[in-house]
């Protein structure tokens, strides 16, 4: 018997960072995403974000690649959002995503970070946040492609 607990913090944004997810209707999107996540045998710890991006804290099953999961989630939510009159500004998701792994002990901290997005972004832009995540995790940023779409 194998055991895995693959906890990922996934972040992706709207096309060109258009503020298309208004606070009044964001829970509809999150509920739809939660359904997708559950159907793919993943566990959602927290979802949240801002009008221009989404944060997820999920545990993925071992046979589901992060890239496959995110591609499917973005595709499903893209179709749903474009067909939903509550999101008239939604033009699609931006290219790519970021995914960071965490230990089980870090789940409460990351959950609280996602809960505090509205407060956090009063002082920090999405580009600054995204850049910090990548650099703090040892990644490199190619400015030719950073947040371009």
How would you concisely characterize the structure shown here?
This protein is of the alpha+beta class and 149 residues long.
Q: What structural category characterises the helix and strand content? A: alpha+beta
Encode the helix/strand succession as letters.
Answer: EHEEHEHHH
Measured as a percent range, the helix fraction is 25-40%
CATH fold name: Alpha-Beta Plaits
**What is the radius of gyration computed over CA atoms, rounded to a whole number of angstroms?**
15 Å
CATH class: Alpha Beta
| CATH architecture grouping | 2-Layer Sandwich
Shape by Cα distribution = globular
CATH superfamily: Transposase IS200-like
Proportion of residues in β-strands: 15-25%
Number of strands: 4
Key features of this structure:
single chain; 149 residues; Alpha-Beta Plaits; 5 helices; globular; four-stranded antiparallel beta sheet; alpha+beta
Question: What report would you give on this structure?
Answer:
By secondary structure, the protein is of the alpha+beta class. The protein has one domain: Transposase IS200-like (Alpha-Beta Plaits), CATH 3.30.70. It is built from 5 helices and 4 strands. The protein has a 4-stranded antiparallel β-sheet with strand order 2-3-1-4, sandwiched between helices. Helix 1 (26-39) crosses helix 2. The termini are far apart.
